[in-house]
Design a protein that fits this description.
single chain; alpha+beta; Structural Genomics Hypothetical 15.5 Kd Protein In mrcA-pckA Intergenic Region, Chain A; 2 domains; five-stranded antiparallel sheet; 4 helices; elongated
């Protein structure tokens, strides 16, 4: 059995729609064995698939090939998260940054707060190709 990478990304719930998965492939945000791939690339069991969702490069090992989209509880049977520790650290930093933001229900940020937030994210998290 074989499956296209865009369909696999959608089936294991990494992207909400197959067209979003295909678009990510076209933009070079999906790598297989450290090589950018087209949406039509065939996935094999054992492949390491990397997905860039700024600022983190997530890595997943293909354990099995699904026939169609699955329940979230079944995803661990089809893929294993093998993201590197340095990328895991970036995820944790992002979580901490969101917790240190404004308390819930305090309204929109002021103009100065918005500028400070933008400056912070430009320096540490965003690539130039996002905007």
């Amino acid at each position: 059995m074989e499956i296209r990478i865009d369909k696999w990304l959608w089936a294991v719930r990494l992207y909400k729609t197959r067209s979003l998965a295909a678009e990510a492939c076209k933009k070079g945000k999906v790598l297989v064995q450290n090589v950018q791939v087209k949406p039509s690339r065939i996935v094999k069991v054992g492949d390491i698939i990397q997905v860039r969702k700024n600022p983190v490069l997530y890595s997943y090992k293909v354990l099995a090939l699904p026939k169609n989209r699955m329940n979230a509880k079944l995803v661990p049977q089809y893929m294993e998260d093998v993201t590197t520790p340095d990328q895991q650290e970036l995820i944790e930093l992002g979580k901490i940054a969101t917790k240190m933001g404004r308390p819930r229900g305090t309204g929109r940020p002021t103009k100065k707060e918005r500028r400070d937030l933008e400056k912070f994210f430009e320096l540490y998290f965003l690539d130039d190709d996002e905007y």
